[in-house]
Amino acid sequence: MATSGQAPPPSRPRPTSISPRRRTTHVFVSTPEEYDDTHSFGGRGESNSQRSRLSWLGSWSSVLGKQESHQTVLGEEVFVDPIGEGSDEEQEEAIGSVRSGRSTPSYIGGSDHVPVEEDGELVNEQTALLPKSPVTYHTPSSTAIQTTLNSINLLMGMGILSFPFALSLTGWIVGITLVLLFALIASTTAKLLAKCMDVTPIDLPTTTSNLPPRPKSMSYGDVGQAAFGRRAKNFIAIVYLAELYAASTALLILAADSIHALFPHWKLLHIKLGVVALLILTTWPRSVRGLSYASLVGVVAILNLLTIVVVDGVTKADPPGSLLQPAETRLWPKSFDRVALAVGIMFVGYDGHAVFPNIYRDMKSPVRFARCINVTYLVVSAFYIAIAACGYLMFGNDVLPEITLNLASIPSYNPVLNKLTLWLIAINPVTKYALAVRPVHMAIENTLHLSPPFHLLARTVLSILILLTSLLFPQFHRLMGLLGSAFSGTVAIVFPLLCYWKLFGGSLGVLGRAVLGMGVGVGVLVIVVGVWGVVGARV
Predict the structure, then answer these.
(1) Number of domains into which the chain is organized
(2) Of 53, 161, 234, 519, which one has the greatest count of Cβ atoms within 10 A?
(3) Is 136 a domain residue?
(4) 279 contact partners, CB below 8 Å, separation of at least 6
(5) Where does the pLDDT of residue 289 fall: very low under 50, low under 70, confident under 90, or very high at 90 and above?
(6) Does residue 1 lie within any of the structural domains?
(7) What does the pLDDT read at residue 300?
(8) Considering only CA atoms, which of 373, 347, 375 is closest in space to residue 491?
(9) In Å, what is the CA distance from 502 to each residue of 28, 219, 240, 358?
(10) Per-residue pLDDT band at 225 (split at 50, 70, 90)
(11) An example Gene Ontology cellular component term from the record (predicted)?
């Protein structure tokens, strides 16, 4: 019971469906803070029994160099809201709930729940299991401009280095068509994903007993679970672990290739050994908070890249490497297998769908999300076309899979500017590797129930395996093609469309279902053709 002088505890509210404007959320920023092992991925603060039930969806996207957040998901309480957009009053009636457990956020410090009042104290079924630590609630705070800038930063990762090479594979007509087509497809599925989120908001238990309940935003995996059940979320988790392993390998290759361009007399194998030794050290600390801020190097590197390419191109009067006198190019592709390889390389730059839920939930006005997505993909496509066109005009059919390698091969370019660009590209993977590989080694540690003394060993062995993978598959553009086809095709096309079909199919007409079916077919085609190009293209 409440004593004199103390405010009575808040009474338990009935579960309600909350408007997106009132939902708490992760505050998505360019460089996320990440808790140490105690707070993330079922870390040391969780019991072994809890860790054995671990399933997660890291909000990591497939494009290298992106800034993302991640979640540990041990279960959640789902309240299904069939109402889409609308006023708070229109969304006050709950439709039902699906019971499955609780969830721990990535870097908020707590989660939300509907408490129960017993003897004047707010408790719940998790009270005895969870520490009563303070909880910081983050409310939606991003304006439309901030949302657009975050989305642009999310999409423009290190995959942009291969866009000139991809354009050389496809020729002008097919290449520009693919860029615009992929932008249309990805922007559409991003908006459909947001609609799926509004159908199924989630209310989660909290770790404290003195705060009123607040709703928790959904992750990408929650959409899959709402549509297809727990197995769908587990499937997405497996896809992401494989994707992050491939992305980590690509980061190692990119760093080694950039350093080799700076010091061509050094053996590439020796460079990779030195780089992986440095990367292993970045995985040992329990917290990667400092590295997440250091990943701002990636933002600077991308913004610097187009500037350097244009400056180099206009300061050289003769080919190769000149915009004033362009090299020979093609209107049409030389063969179909070259187009197939370019499919994955190009599409990887449009997949931010695993992180879009975080961005959407942080919007003050979620109804403007569709417009923000339209602007984002318009700006990003213009940037991709600009860098691809400049690189292709400068080096023609001799453009390399990483445009920075071409820049390093022209001695008449400004050496200071080019070396600065190469160093930024080389350092960037070092700042991001630990962030990218962290969910993978946490999965290993929790699945095998490793004690803390074995964590460093597991992380070291994992990095050695990534090194061996980079030696077996040393080509950066093929890894980017695999990421863009097998993984991005699944995450950014097929899965969002299937979820939308499952949740909204009953309200769609024959034409609507036919369009969705065609979209799924296009996604499968991207996956099949892209993977075939990675394996079979003779480039």
Answers:
(1) 1
(2) 161
(3) no
(4) 252, 255, 429, 430, 433, 434, 463
(5) low
(6) no
(7) 82
(8) 347
(9) 28, 17, 22, 22
(10) confident
(11) vacuolar membrane
Of 81 and 533, the one with more pLDDT: 533
Q: What is the pLDDT of residue 431?
A: 84
DSSP 353: T
pLDDT tens digit string along 134-182?
444 457 778 999 899 889 988 988 889 999 999 999 999 999 999 999 9
Long-range contacts for 129-136 (Cβ within 8 Å, ≥24 apart)? Answer: 129/47, 130/207, 131/45, 131/207, 132/207, 132/208, 132/209, 133/109, 133/207, 133/208, 134/109, 134/110, 134/208, 135/108, 135/109, 135/110, 135/111, 135/206, 135/207, 135/208, 135/211, 136/108, 136/109, 136/110
- For position 410, which CATH number holds? 1.20.1740.10
Q: Please, what is the Cα angle at 9 between 6 and 10, to 5 degrees?
A: 140
Which pLDDT value is given to residue 138?
56
H/E run at residue 56: strand 55-59
Pairing of strands 55-59, 69-73: antiparallel
Give me the mean pLDDT over the 275-300 stretch. Answer: 80
Let me know: does 219 contact 72? Beta carbons within 8 Å.
no
Cα angle 199-200-201, degrees, rounded to a multiple of 5: 115
Residue 439 belongs to a domain: yes
Which pLDDT does position 200 carry in this prediction? 45
Q: Count how many Cα atoms sit within 13 Å of the Cα of residue 414 in the half-sphere of its side chain.
A: 13
